[in-house]
Input
Amino acid sequence: MLNGFKDFILRGNVISMAIGLAVGAAFTAVVTGFSTAFITPLIGLATGSVGDFSAAEFAVEGTIFPYGKFLAAAIAFLITAAVLYFCVVVPMTKVQNRFAKEEEVDIKAALRDCPRCYSAIPAIASRCGHCTSEVEPDPEALALAKLPVQR
Output
């Protein structure tokens, strides 16, 4: 029973997930600290209040609504999302696009109907395989297959 647990814990994907969660938590703490130390006071200065507005609240019939905590959390979330997008997603997309292989074109996949017997034939075919009539190949299919246009 403990061997199965040991195998589960020592799998590469479980350890990678744990490391990712730890790094993500640390990253969130850094972004929250940056937001609290720099962004929140700047917004407080821009709106006319002094310093930290995360303590801002209003009361309705004795019930207190701490909207400043929500604003601080929303700002931290937006900064985290922006940093992740511009520092992780965009560069990884560029790297993946650079190393992505072009999909090979299946020249027989595009079909059309034979004008004589109405059977399905490849778009690049110059002769019907069913009635053996000569047909004009589709120029777009020839260009897609990188074949010369036949005259």
